[in-house]
Amino acid sequence: MGYFRSLLRSFKWILASFAALIFAGNLSASDIASDFSAANRFYAQGKFPEAARAYETILQTGATSPALLFNYGNAEFKSGHLGKAIAAYQRAGQLSPRDAELRANLAFARNQVQGVTLRESRWKSWVGALTLNEGAVLTAVLFWLTFGLLIVRQLRPALIPKLKSATRIFAVLAIFSGAVLGLQAANHFSNASAVVVADNVTARSGPFDDAQSAFTARDGAELSVLSRRDDWVQVADATGKTGWLPVKQVEILPGA
Amino acid sequence: MKSNRFFFQTAAVLFMAALIFRAATADAASFTASLDRDSITLGETATMSLAFEGGKANNLPTPEVPGLRIVQSGSSQNVSIINGQMTSTVTVTYSVTPQRAGEFTIPALTADVNGQRLSTEPLKLTARKADAPSAAAVNSGSEIAFLKLTLPHEKFYSGQTVIGRVELYLRDDVQNFGNFQFTGTPAEGFSVGKMIEGQRTRTQVGNRVYTVIQLLLPLTAVKSGALTLGPFTASAVVVLPSQNQGGNPFFQMLNQGEQRQVSLATEQLAVQALPLPAENVPADFNGAIGNFSLNVTAGPTNLTVGDPITVRVQISGRGALNAVTLPDQTAWRDFKTFPPTSNVTNTDQFGFQGIKTFEQIVSPLNSDVHELPPFSFSFFNPDDGAYHTLTQPATPLLVHSAGSTPMPVIAGNKNSNAENPASPQDILPIKEDLGTLAQTGTPLIASPKFLAVQGLPVIAFLAAFIWRRRADSLANNPRLRRQRAVAQLVRDGLNDLRRLAAENKPDEFFATLFRLLQEQLGERLDCPASAITENVLDEQPALRGAQAATLAGLRELFQLCNQARYAPVRGSGELNSVAAQFEKTIGELQGVKA
Q1: Average of per-residue pLDDT across A110-133
Q2: At what angle do helices A82-95 and A100-111 cross, to 10 degrees?
Q3: Are B124 and B38 in contact (CB under 8 A)?
Q4: Which residues on chain B are in Cβ contact (under 8 Å) with A115?
Q5: CA quadruple A123, A128, A129, A135: dihedral sign
Q6: CB–CB of B114/B126 below 8 Å?
Q7: Is any Cβ of chain A less than 8 angstroms from the Cβ of B459?
Q8: Shortest Cα distance from B67 to chain A (angstroms)?
Q9: Touching check for A216 and chain B: CB below 8 Å?
Q10: Inter-chain touch A154–B468, beta carbons under 8 Å
Q11: Nearest C-alpha in A relative to B431
């Protein structure tokens, strides 16, 4: 009897914790939604810097969504911060790579950048049509299907002739998807890029304030990241020039 | 012949092994560090060598000195035998490039060599700035190569773009040069454009002839006042005739020349950047400097309120076209204006001359509008030091009232190519819906759990594969199949025997026992079970491998079965002991090789 009573108590406690968790989650989401609406109102009133700060505050809580980053990018763009806008659009693109409006705004913002800037190569753009997680799930599904068919063939040899074509197709698709995922992962983990978020920055030949000037870059210019050392980041521009920039002058993004 | 060859090969291998062993067990190890020079010009690279004699370093030291870029460039191993004493030296080389002028100390480096902890002496390296050669040195012809920086004027306006000229002079005995790179282009107060190589000429300087390579550099002063340009510093590798060729034409033909790294520097130039005149500044002047012409077209001119008119403004001429922006047109107050787009078509290699085309969408706000007001553009011409204003006359418009015709809205077309939307004039508006919130975290591909789960189908497949192999093997082996079937039959039969013993049914008990003996012996002897009698125990050679006790046990079981036909009824206890004996004997029989 005592055992059942303690079991019931534990069950009630688990239920209460679960409900509290769900309720807390909803509360937090509703807070974010109301802050998001407030930021949208700032934007609608033409108070773009205030809107940008409001969006940024939401992002600092760790919550993010393609729409939030999109709107943040818009607010920064309207505030004249081209680099921050491009970085926000890029981050949004990593969550929602097939959003046509997002791509249009990113292309528009990029067109406003003066001077040399890195352009995304065609293959990266193609590979980036799926998010890394989407690519991973797709590859996993094809992988499981392929092995599922192989298992069925072992268990029911009579079905082998019927499953032959399907197995081959899924195997080829799984290999192809895996290769694309490999490219995506390599790009994500090793090809970081940086967006200049300050006006007319000077890249230096070494990670020192008194090192010689290597090249200059404008707000919004996109650079590829070669390495990092303390508060400096080594970058290369589209022409292949390399130099070191203080981390605070750029926003570093992982590969798409 | 073959044995001799084998003997010599073996002897050679043993000799080499002995040498290697001797090298490996050489005397005390040493570790030294050295630089190929102790003084260097900024932009040059020195070589540091770490030599490990008598062994290899277990932990290769990585020197780090602020202001020096030290990168490992290679390693080599040298084995020498002097007076029968073999010495092995591993040398690791690093390229050392100073990032700034000054004195640097590479600290003592420590490494474990053959279990000994050894340290080097600290090394000193002085990096000095390159200086431009004196006029006397240039005229004497002693300079292999030098740089000159010249500007068309000493005074020019802030914002004006001029073409600077960097000239690389190479003496006539320089056979070739390469790896030319600027190590410093100080241009405080200037915006520096892309450098372009100009023509090559030859000229007499002093008593030597030099090849002159021009590099042209667009420079724009971004602030007014006294500015300095340079000294530009560079380094290059030149190839000079080898000093050791002598007069032998054969060696001259083979001579590859002597490579020498040279550091180059220009003189520093003082420049006066004049501020733009403060008088007579046009109201719409927005910083355009150069000499330009203007062409404006607009269309359509017959439209309704809210319809877009595309105004195309072409500004062509010479100047910093990239910096030219469209001036605000205050007279366009009756129009809603959208941000303009622009593109530049250059007609020279510096981006200094060409056409900048702006496209701006404007939309009449009411039907009282009858014209697009005159368009004006002002610029400062540094050639005559005066401001100029270009004006395009008003464009007549016929604007119809359209009631509540909506303003043109830029909307994203999800079916169009997002990279090239149809001439967008502004960014697309914000999204009202927050959408699904996401937490930034580790991608699935880097999650160990996700990767581990992907192993499950592989494991399942391997299990299915092994199962299939065993099933196929069984299907193709009737003896194995029978063996398993009989084993199962005996297992079930044993249960039956125990049950029958407990129920004290001796007739059924011994009938079952006899059948089980037949099945098991039939399987072992590969013959039909019905052909098995007690006689097979003596006749079949296959059972000779069985132990005598097993055969005796079997024989006794057969006899018990025979006696049961006429013997009195036995009790449960006795039947149970017979079942136990059967289990033991059958177990032994199953161990006999079939």
Answers
A1: 79
A2: 150
A3: yes
A4: 322
A5: positive
A6: no
A7: no
A8: 8
A9: yes
A10: yes
A11: A67
Chain A interface test: which of B445, B450, B470 (most A C-beta within 10 Å): B445
CB contact under 8 A, B444 and A132: yes
Which residues on chain B are in Cβ contact (under 8 Å) with A107? 418-421
Of A67, A70, A133, the CB nearest to B443: A133
- Which residues face B166 on adjacent strands? B149, B215
What confidence score (pLDDT) does residue A50 get?
93
- Whether residue A119 is predicted with pLDDT greater than 80 in this model: the reply is no
| Cβ–Cβ contact B573 with A under 8 A | no
Phi-psi map region of B350: left, alpha, beta (phi>0 left; psi -120 to 50 alpha): alpha
Closest CA to A76 of A254, A193, A219: A219
Which residue of chain B has the CA closest to A40? B432
Higher-confidence residue: B233 or B421?
Answer: B233
Q: Does A63 touch chain B (CB under 8 A)?
A: yes
Inter-chain Cβ pairs, chain A and chain B, closer than 8 A = 145
Answer yes or no: do A36 and B67 touch at CB < 8 A: no
pLDDT value, residue A54: 94
> Cα–Cα distance between A224 and B92 in angstroms, integer?
31
The whole-angstrom distance between residue B493's C-alpha and the CA centroid of its chain comes to 70
The dihedral of CA B276, B293, B295, B354: what is its sign?
A: negative
Provide the 8-state DSSP code for B77: E
Mean pLDDT of B105-119: 84
Q: Which residues of A touch B461 (CB under 8 A)?
A: 147, 150-151, 154
Q: Is the complex ipTM higher than 0.90?
A: no
Q: What is the mean pLDDT of residues B83-106?
A: 84
Interface touch B457/A137, C-beta < 8 Å: no
- What value does the mean pLDDT take over residues B258-270? 84
Q: What is the pLDDT of residue B6?
A: 55
* pLDDT top residue among B534 and B462: B462
Q: How many CB atoms lie within 10 A of CB A131?
A: 21
Q: What pLDDT score was predicted for residue B334?
A: 82
Contacts of residue B60, defined as CB under 8 A and 6 or more positions apart, other chains included, come to B50, B92, B111
Cβ contact A206–B67 (<8 Å): yes
Residue with tokens 């090789």: B593
What residues contact A145, with CB distance under 8 A and at least 6 apart?
A170, A174
The pairs formed by A145-148 with CB atoms below 8 angstroms and a separation of 24 or more are A145/A170, A145/A174, A146/A170, A146/A171, A146/A174, A147/B457, A147/B458, A147/B460, A147/B461, A148/B457
Report residue A46 as tokens.
């033409």
Asked if B277 and B251 touch (Cβ cutoff 8 Å), the reply is no
Residue B462 above 80 pLDDT?
Answer: yes
A window 88-147, beta carbon within 8 A of B? 95, 100-105, 107-109, 111, 114-115, 125, 132-133, 135-137, 140, 143-144, 147
Residue A7 has pLDDT above 70, yes or no: no
Q: Is residue B355 pLDDT above 70, yes or no?
A: yes
Query: Would you give the distance in Å from CA A107 to the centre of its chain?
Result: 17
The alpha carbon dihedral of B18, B24, B28, B34 has a sign of positive
Q: Which of A69-78, A187-196, B290-299 has the highest mean pLDDT?
A: A69-78
CB interface of B with A, residues 179-218, below 8 Å: 183-187, 191-192, 194
Is B421 strand, coil or helix?
coil
Residues counted in chain B: 594
Mean pLDDT of B376-404: 83
Among A36-40, A84-88, A111-115, B245-249, where is mean pLDDT lowest?
Answer: B245-249
> In a 10 Å sphere around its CB, with 0-12 CB exposed, 13-18 middle and 19+ buried, how is residue B226 labelled?
exposed
Q: Per the structure block, which two tokens stand in for A36?
A: 């998001």
